[in-house]
Amino acid sequence: MKRTITVVAAVIKNENEQVFTALRSEKMAEANLWEFPGGKVKQGEQLEEALRREIHEELDCDIVVKDKITDTVYEYSDKIVHLHTFWATLTSGVPKATEHDEVRWCTFNQLKELRWAPADVETVEKITSSC
Which pTM was predicted? Predict the structure, then answer.
């Protein structure tokens, strides 16, 4: 039986209507695919709390977590990922690629051109559907 991992991700939008994206490194599962930053939820942690912690650890900045966008379950070959994705805005810091190979601010149309990690595809489709 595959284990289920609960994860959170932030769709961080800036004042120029661009969205922050991150390219998974060679050391990560789903390497060389784009994702919205975030990570695993610890036991007993609230989703929003986990997302703030992960963004601080991963990008060295702080966010305000806003409305939920998607609640996706994706089955990989070795695990099941339950992904909760939220809108967010930066409150301090400039995002840095500390774990990812590359980070990039993209327009909503540019999001459609990237190769996404499978669990993030539903979110991309939802937020770009009106573009």
Answer: 0.93
